[in-house]
């Protein structure tokens, strides 16, 4: 059987070129072997993984490609797949150039209409980066746990079921429990019996309000002593605004509370001796960190402490004798005066009033205050005074926000930077090699093939950048696109990926309504959702694709207008409400380690949002899941596929005496740069890393140094700094696939930067400009 007919048999008669294009766009290696375990199809990623030409793999047996030892391990699973059983396994693989990597592999039996197994589709996923990211995330979590554990306040994070996700060391020390006992103890048992009923009621009401709330009461410490704690709890919301738990902190206010209670007692027992005790009361009053003010029931300031803050007037005593809302401090913040007036009126009626306000001045950061007004009753039960307290919560809230957000963003940034660098290095070799073939090919047919491959590689470079859409917020190639025909063209691919055990239903709108979307990203999103649905239906089921036109007028995420709704529904296991609420979070996955990165659904959501639409999930346990994607109707006509020959760049002309030193740790990238510059007539020397580059630089000073930025041991920035120190004004051209170009320019502000991947002509033009 020839390679072409085998491929057509695999594709089932559909447009094989399109399937090959889609398969080559996928980042994971994919291959097909027949019953004799010979390769009949591989995508571009599989050939690159084995570092062989596709033609060198096709027709060969698995044992020839993998070697006897690796084949012996996989042979039982290959035989089981030929018997019709889908296989999955994870393993470590010693890659010839990349070293040890972690892989997960699936063997999918492919059958004919009679159920006979024709061969096996092999899907390989490299999960090395995921595991590195997981390790980095764990390190980040440990670092931020240390920060929280060094905080002088008690801190905790809870889920909706009240289980603690995290408590700091101050929490454990106060409670006198071990960390493994956190989810078995009951915090209500610590509350003083006189405060219990009030605090439980305030806690329930505060959580129901979905607003920050505070509690104050006596808690039994591990040594048996009761201490006054003031806690502030804030709700935690998911990416779609759903409540997922609470984050809180508490600090010991025993000294302040004792002073407050003592002050209340003195006020109730106010006598002629009040003047004599002024100094003693003042000392207690002024020792309290919070701002405390004693008011008449009508709001007149009777007494106050002199605690210094950055939001209070310089001389607090100016407020004595004035109404609180007319005091100098509130004159500076007039927007809060009506609220304070209403709060005083409520406290005068015997109510405890508590709220948060933000004190903001132009050009200064805002200060968040927790305000409380407590009535003080006399012997007859009538309110005789009101105690006003203001506590600064700004730093506490800032610490809570850092604890909640820093870990996720740090891990995400490290992951995307590494991916961009590695992929751009790889594509530089592919694009550069094909470009050299085009320049040197004497056979017109070979040149045409090379040009076609070069265009495909450059589209792959764009695709690599687009795959980072969610985490890097990169711009997609959004254009008018028909959704229904796109899904129709994916039917054969979906049939092969999903297998015969899953029924496929298509209810596609026949009206040709274009939407604004990136076609390649939309195809990858649909494929991602189909694979997720397949994993949710291990025993088989039904997957339904539906498109319809809908008009949206009042949606918080979408602008009013006409949209196309693409819904993909399965009859699988479904999701719990907690899982559904977090499904679009980056790195969140319910699959076991090694079977999922947690980036699939977040990428789908990012594509929809960057296209002007959104994505939503509906699911119930045991009843299946529906993902709905909304895309804005396009006003313009549908355009053709992107691509075409790139604009020609005038080749750089060699300087006969120009000496160029190339420093790059990647052998293939360095070889392409050296070959391209030699073709242009330059005298080229090369170095495998920064240390060797400095040796060559000192042996004979070059006219230009072509320098990779990211290298082991000595980075490009360090090498450039040393060279400039030894020879000021040395011409340097950075080449890099690293995403943080600001850091590259900081290393040598006047040096040129050529981003990877690039063609030989672009390299020549950059070299000529650097030498000018």
Automatic annotation (TrEMBL):
Domain Response regulatory residues, every copy: 659-771
TM regions (residue ranges): none
Domain PAS: 140-199, 277-351
Residue ranges of every copy of the Histidine kinase domain listed in the record: 418-635
UniProt KW Phosphoprotein keyword: yes
Residue list for modification 4-aspartylphosphate: 708
SMART domains noted in UniProt: HATPase_c (SM00387), HisKA (SM00388), PAC (SM00086), PAS (SM00091), REC (SM00448)
Enzyme Commission number, as recorded: 2.7.13.3
EC top class, as a word: transferase
Keywords linked to the UniProt accession: Phosphoprotein
Xref: Gene3D superfamilies: 1.10.287.130, 3.40.50.2300, Histidine kinase-like ATPase, C-terminal domain (3.30.565.10), PAS domain (3.30.450.20)
Keyword Transmembrane helix appears in the UniProt entry: no
Reaction catalysis annotation: ATP + protein L-histidine = ADP + protein N-phospho-L-histidine
UniProt xrefs under Pfam families: HATPase_c, HisKA, PAS_3, PAS_4, Response_reg
Every PAC domain range: 87-139, 213-265, 353-405
SUPFAM superfamilies, per database record: ATPase domain of HSP90 chaperone/DNA topoisomerase II/histidine kinase, CheY-like, Homodimeric domain of signal transducing histidine kinase, PYP-like sensor domain (PAS domain)
Highest taxon above the source species: Bacteria
Protein name: histidine kinase
Record organism: Sphingomonas rosea
